[in-house]
Design brief:
32% of the residues lie in helices and 9% in strands. It is α/β, with parallel strands linked by helices and 277 residues long.
Amino acid sequence: MRALPTDSSKVGEANWTPRMIEQFRRLRGYDPTPWLPTLTSTLTSTLVGTRDQSGRFLYDFRRTLADLLASEHYGTIAKVAHENALIVYGEALEDHRPMLGDDMTMRKATDIPMAALWTFGRAEGPRQTLIADMKGAASVAHLYGQNLVAAESMTASMAPWAFAPKDLKRFIDLELVTGVNRPVIHTSVHVPVDDKQPGLSLFIFGQYFNRNESWAELAKPWVDYIARSSLLLQQGRNVADVAYFHGEEAPLTGLYGASRWPMRRPPTPMTSSTSMP
């Protein structure tokens, strides 16, 4: 075993820890306790001080959640993996999920930032959250000088043996032109015996990419195409003249997941304060 992958986060909302007050003080530089009533209602705002002061605290609170998710969860996984001589492939949110973390920062500690692309029909096209997820993973690699960008690739649902290389090529090509250069097939399942098919799978999910495929004996050119294209793209380095700040109020999959990329300008974040009266 050489690598540890972390799948996309599906735990739902996470907005408190036993050490939240302590961690907030450490990260933001002031005591959040007097401002906690602002967290008590989502329908009718509970103000502490002025509306502007309450808004600044809520911004600081959201940033603290994002920072802790990145450092205490993803950072801890990377630390333990590296202590055991493993590299980390790291996904973030992938899709519309209720999480306040920054899905670019979530992948900061990974050795190979990772996204996901599921199969899709030609008529409907890919989910835009997945386009945003791939662009986010590629952006992490560009920011931190990495040259590998992975993606959970060709994932299908309730579609066993439904795809041939002719069908799958457009998914891989979309990944390659969106910044991915290391497709990770989901799932090339283990087949320990011949009389149990499709093998060890993930219930209804996955691409049964194994020797039981009807085209398995003809697969070499297709696999060579994926490998060769990936290798060539891994030789380069991203060069960009413009950097775009996407904001800090929501994950990329939230900001850009509802419409074609790029969408409207993201909301301007409020200025954080480290010395709140």
